[in-house]
Amino acid sequence: MLRIVRCLAGFALLLLTSVSLAQDALTPYRFLLTFIPNIQFAPLYAAIADGHYAALGLDVQIEYLNEPDVIDLVAAEQADFGMVSGEQVILAAARGRPVVYVYEWFQQYPVGVVFDAAADITTPADLAGQRVGIPGRFGASYSGFTALLLAAGMAEDAVQLEEIGFNAPEVFCLGAVDAAVVYINNEPLQIRHLAQAGQCGDVQDVRVLTVASDTPLVSNGLVTHQALIERDPDFVGAAIAAYDAGLKSVIHNPARAYLLSAAFVDTLPLTDALQAVLTEQATAQEAFLATGPDREAIAASRADLLAALRAQFTPAELIQMEVLLASIDLWDADRPGFSDGNGWENMQNTLLAMGLLAEKVNLDRVYSNAFVPATAD
Amino acid sequence: MLQDTHPTISTHPPPKGLAWPRPAGLSRRWLRRLSPLATLLVILAGWHVITARELYPAFIIPPPAAVAQAFAAAVSDGSLLAHTRVTLGEMLGGLFIGVSAGLLVGYAIARLPLLEDLLAPIIVAFQSTPIVAYAPLLIIWFGSGHTAKIVTCAVIVFFPTLMNTIVGVRTVPAALRELMRSLQATPLQVFVKLEVPAALPVLLTGLKTSATLSVIGAVVGEFVSAGDGLGYLVTSSRYEYNTPMVYVAVLTMTALALALYSLVSLLEWRLLAWQRHSHARQS
Predict the structure, then answer these.
(1) CATH topology identical between A26-107+217-377 and A111-210
(2) Contacts (Cβ under 8 Å, ≥6 apart) of A138
(3) Which of A45, A82, A264, B90 is most buried when burial is the number of CB atoms within 10 A of its CB?
């Protein structure tokens, strides 16, 4: 009997030691994001939670920085991967940063202009003379808004551009601006939520003019260092495949992604009731996915999920889920990760027109589709 | 070098009753005056070595020559002057409001302890919150123009002025107050003839702190949201990956802070001349 107990104890010790060694064997690995912990980064959270990076021996440690810091840390080989908007990569390359954009996360440019649904605005030309809030005259919002104006044959001084920082919902609802340049998958939902709660002045609802509908532009994606690609292309491919797996899992099963993201985003609304329903929905979606549905059917299942949740929960409880679903609409594509050359050309032309770029850069050195997984699954 | 300049200085002690010759003292004074320049040269040399040996990529630490080139370009196209003017305007506006408010509230608190009991919790709570935490709120409250930056600046300079005013007014010796009372001085006379001169050294120390903090206030406001100013120049240059221009903007902020500090020091030197003369007479 004693021998059996000793054997069991030894086995348990061996098991614990091997688990501990496996965890110790993971290499701490910096992954650079922008903004703050947010449901929009669900693809990375899912990739980590599902063990795609652990399978590569990596213990991913996320850092949230400004875009230029992400670029410079990757360019200085202080980190292998970061997530930035496409125009930043062109500007950085023009200033000698050896970074390469290797995976397009947002398939549609996420910037747009939000305004009161009751306003007499249907085209960018209708913004003439309006007070338009913008985070600042830099970054993706500024480039995107300029592209929107240029496509409409307008100059910047056609509107009253006001720098409002990242405070669009508050400033817009206070009535300090008539419209605001925003990320279309986030702020319009926040403003609509405020409007429905009667906290946005006279505004009852909002509409959005999207940049993507006028001009295809390269958007946010993964960057890495040129030297890493030359030194270890297999690793680059594997790390991108890990992210790709995370992105696809989120597109396919947002309820599950939301639950996984709760471990990374402290402020994510998740009551017990919501958790129970999402768990149930996630399980049902797994069964649905096992039937091999196509992209359209999966998109329809996301709409069904939202309808089911809206029937049971308040807008405040669902706001972040709505942000996730709106984001997925911008990520979903036949071949996630692939970036179109036209988007790069358009972005470069916009930067030239803005005077941010003195001359054209060789775009072949700025981005690569070589590591994008070939098929949707 | 010192021996070349003063070859006749003896190393023997002077005869009793005589002082050491003056030239050595003069040289020491010049050395003290030149020492900041020497520090600057050492920093420049170290910077040059780091960049020449490529210890860091040029996009992290650009060579001094690249920064000088960016500086020349920004001066010649007028952009640096324009941004500096904006930041300086916000600093001076914030200084004026913050210092005035600090002086008024500080004097009132110093004279009315009840007011201190009433206001202290609010003031301390406000001051202990980092300015970057509520700067975005100031943008929402006061709009995206220069007002929000001036208010940010005023808020940050208010507290040192307030504290130094309280300390300054309360350190007026009780004996002197008694003396003024026995001379039947009016409150205005006590204020002008006693409290202001007595508190002035501490007030000016507070003003020096406020002057340097005003740069932080203006730039923090510009970081949150701005279309001009040195804080904006840093942000826009970062987003254009123009690292030399970031250095130019940061060095210009430093120069502004130094200039304001020196200006207040000069003011202090002039206003406290009576104190130096008094000390000289006493010694």
Answers:
(1) yes
(2) B235, B236, B238, B239, B240
(3) B90
